[in-house]
Amino acid sequence: MRPAWALEYGRFRLSSSRGNALMGHGLTAQSESGASAMLAQSERFSLRASLRIDQGDDGSESPRRRGLPDVRSTLRARLSTGYALTPRWSVGAGVSQDILGRDGGALMSLNLGYSVPYSQQTRVSFGVGAGFADRQYLRSHFGVPAGSASPLPAFDPKAGLYSVDAGVDVMVALSRHWVAVGGVSVSQLQGDARRSPLTVKPLGYSASVGLAYRCCR
Asked: Rounded to an integer, what is the distance from CA 42 to the centroid of its chain?
């Protein structure tokens, strides 16, 4: 169980990913998809900038990473944009970069969303997306350096598409303060990330359900 939380002041917001979506649901006609700083916003377009901590991977939860260099934790800067094609269809894109030079590399995402607002209180959202990564990111997370202590064969991945995903989320504003949430998603590794000897299960599923309380709004 993971808590969802968000703090907002003007154009600035500090939140978990789920808390970001819950802040505005059921209070306004349009959902708020904020970030740590909203750089530009109109009825259809938004441009956001954010910072987040990438926890990395020290191999403690992945036996196949034994003998490989740790994926160091770092700080990522992200720039993302969204555009509402219609009241229901939207597209988005984002780019993030390791800004501490800890071999985290760069990531890019593209997504397409479809939202069904059954009422101001209830919304069902469907989405599909694709993730791309540069060579440095894939080397750190999916590569096996030649001459390492790992028993796995050497593997040097190249930049490109590394994942696709799809999901559905339901949010119901029970009152001004209480929101019920639920969702399911599926993701699959692609390209060299899928071919990596470190990859055991390229297909992943997740499901979530919860109850959130919004104060001070």
From this structure: 23
